[in-house]
Amino acid sequence: MALPDCEFMLPFLRSGAAGGPQRKSRPAGVVSAVAASDGCPEIEAPRVANTMQNSNRIALKEWAIVVHALSEGSQIFLLRKGGIAEAEGEFRLAAREFFLYPTWEHQQEALLQPRYATAFRSHPSPSQPAGELSFEHYAVVTDVWPAPPLPRIQQISGDFVWNAAFLEKRYAYKPYLPLAVLALRVYRLPHSLRVPLLDRYAGCRSWVELEESLPTEGAQPILDDSAFERRREALREHLVERAVA
What we know:
Layout: E1 22-23, E2 30-32, E3 34-35, E4 41-42, E5 51-52, E6 55-63, H1 64-72, E7 77-81, E8 86-87, E9 90-92, E10 97-103, H2 117-122, E11 132-146, H3 150-154, H4 164-172, E12 179-196, E13 207-215, E14 220-221, H5 225-239
Parallel strand pairs: 1-5, 6-10
Antiparallel strand pairs: 2-9, 3-4, 6-13, 7-12, 8-9, 10-11, 11-12, 12-14
């Protein structure tokens, strides 16, 4: 079974830190990366202030069960594979922060770890009225790293929903495309934001530009600063291979 060929423009981003949000109207733009000896970008992660836009009109589609795991803090990253936009040695991020758009397309219980079966079965379809889209969570990318070899990511299976079958398929799917790990700081919105579900949002696409910007005011982090930083650092230490001088 082939995984869906969804569009996704993804750079390798030098990261920010995990502190509480500071409002900012302009998102981060361009960051640099240099090629390591294995052809993958050598990523550094300098500490910078974590920021959040006051409003946003960009949403990222993700399996509903993954959004569930992100929303309870049991998972803090995504695996993404897609095209890389490179200009003069710099990588550009299509969207550094976004609303999480749960989707029921393509997700399958057979590709999940058994402990997520109950949650998967309890949310078989969207709960909002037909013709309406509801957002409850917002995410800010703190880090993007090249995905490690498959055996290394399998060692932290307690940190994500996918099972071995999914990982094998994900790594094997279009192997010429880079696979990246996106570390996310996820926030719960103070209330659901409901918008009309437009026809142009449908289909196998990852990024969705909404008809209008939605507010992020009052969003609260799922994990507090110290808890998120511990999880983020543990993930970085395990997944990011550092060159030995």
